[in-house]
TrEMBL record:
SUPFAM superfamilies noted in UniProt: Cytidine deaminase-like, Formyltransferase
Record has Signal as a keyword: no
Entry GO terms, CC: cytosol
Protein name per the record: phosphoribosylglycinamide formyltransferase 1
Gene: purH
Molecular function (Gene Ontology), one example: phosphoribosylaminoimidazolecarboxamide formyltransferase activity
UniProt source species: Haloplanus rallus
Length: 525
């Protein structure tokens, strides 16, 4: 366990934060101050942390005072010293005697050294400041840097508001991080400076700095009682609804839910090279299709579940033409997303006052390789799920081989299924959806929902002869039994269940063709 000696001159909030977090299992073994009235003494006592007061006498030399301080610290066998508002520059002799000594300074060194860092930052007009954790040396605020953390400077900031933000958003992150690195024995301090093992660049670096700019304040969030705003990554040049131009300026601005659904819709139609259309509701596909023309693709997608598509988001992977626009405005939609519009299409779409028309520009190649989800206290980051099977990836496991048409449908279904919330089941025929069961806690319930949607909501199509796609393996044969009863004739699924043999046997019993992909496509957001 890493044992820390804290040197503080006032409140010692960074030290108390480190004590509360215990980064890497580190323990604050003692807090030492040169001011007997320092508030840090009571804060440490409340936490059961030993304290030492080593005040400097009026006539006491610096060397004598440091010698007494060193003697007090000797009793605690510490591995690291952390300074926090200890308003004395330690001598080289003392620093040589002590373990590695760290200090935190409220600026991004080498900028704004000294006691008035916040005032200097404001006077300089910088838009970003932060903090620096560095190895203490005899020279003020000049030791080798261990880590830094940036925060923005906002309009209207004064020294007090900036100090508060730097403390809570920068120092409270950077100082525990540095301590954790020492606790994990990942830091080397030598004449060449500081080296941190594992703190290298790559797809998943040890640290991430994310800086986005507020693009607009939204009317509200998911619900009217929630405030919300849209932030933009100004460096991104990938087609996105964040940067899309809203062509019908008279229409109201997009809501939080509009942005969320439109992003999901755009993500789905980018799966396909052929003309494709999708209708999204609550980030789930209500229908998706590809066809020889955009208008046909839209009509096929809508026909999957026109009732659920009411008030949904339409996404197209080709510039919208007048024929497609005419079909879109026949029922109420919130937003249309496309890589451009013909003049005729804009004339048609602009007649609908409540319809927002977004031009995302050329779809191009994907440049974003990661997706992320905020969590309370952090965020999950993963590679995007860009994988989709080809014919060569399919392992046929049943007595009956799928036909060429069924294989084509399997491949289409998988690309669409990736965008359905798990547990997810999708029925498809040709290159259009027939019924979609999403977000169920039971896979067999997802099958039942897809069958119900196909039989009761689809217009001009049903589950008879359909291909079923599942985002994960079937744990039992009951899902196959339900699909067979609905009329499904072929299945694509990952495989990998301990009951695969029973599931395949059930498919054989109903003369179904089944192919394994070897990979699943969960989507939980």
């Amino acid at each position: 366990m890493l044992r820390i000696a804290g040197l503080a001159g006032n409140r010692g909030r960074n030290l108390m934060h480190i004590a509360d977090l215990s980064p890497g299992g580190a323990e604050l073994a003692v807090v030492c101050t040169d001011d007997g009235s320092a508030p840090v003494l009571s804060s440490a006592a409340d936490r059961g942390i030993p304290t030492e007061v080593v005040e400097r006498g009026d006539d006491e030399s610096r060397a004598d005072h440091e010698s007494r301080l060193r003697a007090r610290l000797d009793d605690y066998e510490v591995d690291l010293v952390c300074m926090d508002g200890y308003m004395r520059v330690l001598s080289a002799d003392l620093l040589d005697d002590l373990p590695t000594t760290l200090n935190v300074h409220p600026s991004l060194l080498p900028a704004f050294r000294g006691e008035d860092a916040h005032e200097q930052a404001l006077a300089a007009g910088v838009r970003t400041t932060g903090c620096t954790v560095h190895v203490a040396t005899e020279e003020l605020d000049a030791g080798p840097i261990v880590t830094q953390e940036a925060v923005p400077v906002h309009e209207g900031d004064d020294a007090e508001t900036l100090k508060r933000r730097v403390l809570h958003e920068a120092e409270f992150k950077a100082y525990p991080r540095a301590v954790e690195w020492f606790a994990e024995d990942r830091i080397t301090v030598d004449d060449d400076g500081v080296t941190v093992e594992g703190d290298e660049a790559g797809q998943f670096p040890a640290r991430r700095v994310v800086s986005d700019d507020r693009r607009r304040t939204l009317r509200y969030g998911e619900n009217p009682h929630q405030d919300a705003a849209l932030y933009a990554d100004v460096a991104s040049d990938e087609a996105s609804v964040v940067h899309a131009a809203q062509l019908n300026e008279g229409a109201k601005a997009l809501s939080y839910n509009n942005y969320n659904d439109a992003d999901a819709a755009l993500d789905l139609i980018r799966e396909f090279d052929e003309p494709a259309a999708a209708v999204i509701k609550h980030t789930n596909p209500a229908g998706c299709a590809t066809a020889d023309s955009l208008a046909t693709a839209y009509e096929d997608a809508l026909a999957t579940d026109a009732m659920s598509a009411f008030g949904g988001i339409v996404a197209l992977n080709r510039p919208c033409d007048a024929a497609t626009a005419d079909a879109i405005v026949e029922s109420f939609k919130e937003v249309v997303v496309a890589p451009g519009y013909t003049d005729g299409a804009l004339d048609v779409l602009s007649e609908k006052e409540d319809l927002r028309v977004l031009d995302v520009g050329s779809l191009g190649d994907r440049t974003t390789t990661l997706s992320e989800k905020p969590l309370t206290g952090g965020r999950l980051v993963q590679e995007r799920d860009d994988w989709a099977p080809t014919r060569a990836d399919l392992e046929v496991v049943t007595e009956r081989d799928p036909t060429d048409d069924e294989i084509e449908t399997m491949l289409f279904a998988w690309r669409t299924l990736k965008h359905v919330k798990s547990n997810a089941i999708l029925f498809a025929a040709g290159t259009e959806t027939v019924g979609i069961g999403m977000g169920q806690v039971s896979r067999v319930d997802a099958v039942r929902l897809a069958a119900m949607k196909a039989d009761e909501h689809a217009e001009g199509k049903d589950a008879a002869g359909a291909v079923m796609a599942s985002d994960a393996f079937f744990p039992f044969p009951d899902g196959i039994e339900e699909a067979a009863e609905a009329g499904v004739e072929a299945v694509i699924q990952p495989g990998g269940s301990v009951n695969d043999d029973d599931v395949v046997a059930a498919a054989d019993e109903h003369d179904m063709a089944m192919a394994f992909t070897g990979k699943r496509c969960f989507r939980h957001d």
